[in-house]
């Protein structure tokens, strides 16, 4: 089950239905059990700043934070997915809007990118090394483009 909450106060409001559809698409493409639980929450800059300091020991708001829970991973070929508590993805749409302006695309597209990024972190992907970064960002791009292709 995917839970979505917008506690950000950001205007214009982010399309939560589209965020949930993206999350479902990503989890399905990654072969995650449909009963696995994921939470996606949009928060204000001040809340994100507090989370950033508390969990990363870094000042100021960031775009996305992920909080994995049960270490659910995509199953290897030939294996069935397992249920579990995936964790939480927290996005700051104010930071996303700033990044979207710099990148020349819509805020919703940046939010969708960040949610995809956050889900991959929850599923155990990281970008600490150049090899991990290539794998994670390549997968992120493939998933996001696949989802966006379903929108038209």
Would you summarize the structure shown here?
The chain has helices spanning 16-29, 45-56, 93-103, 107-122, 130-151; strands at 2-6, 37-42, 64-68, 85-91.
Describe this structure in words.
The chain has 152 residues and is of the alpha/beta class. It has five helices and four strands, in the order βαβαββααα. A four-stranded mixed beta sheet has the order 1-2-4-3, with helices on both faces. Helix 1 links the parallel strand 1 and strand 2. The longest helix has 22 residues. It is globular and about 45 Å long. The model has no long low-confidence stretch (mean pLDDT 95).
What is the fold's blueprint, element by element?
Blueprint: E1 2-6, H1 16-29, E2 37-42, H2 45-56, E3 64-68, E4 85-91, H3 93-103, H4 107-122, H5 130-151
Parallel strand pairs: 1-2, 2-4
Antiparallel strand pairs: 3-4
Helix pairs in contact: 1-4, 3-4, 4-5
Strand order of the largest sheet: 1-2-4-3
> Please, what is the average pLDDT?
95
Q: Characterize the largest beta sheet: strand count, sense, and whether it forms a barrel.
A: 4 strands, mixed
Query: What is the first-to-last residue Cα distance?
Result: 25 Å
Please indicate the percent range of residues in DSSP E strands (runs of 2 or more): 15-25%
Radius of gyration from CA coordinates: 15 Å
The arrangement of helices and strands along the chain is EHEHEEHHH
The number of helical segments is: 5
Helix content: 40-55%
Which residues sit in consecutive blocks of at least 5 with pLDDT less than 50? none
The oligomeric state is single chain
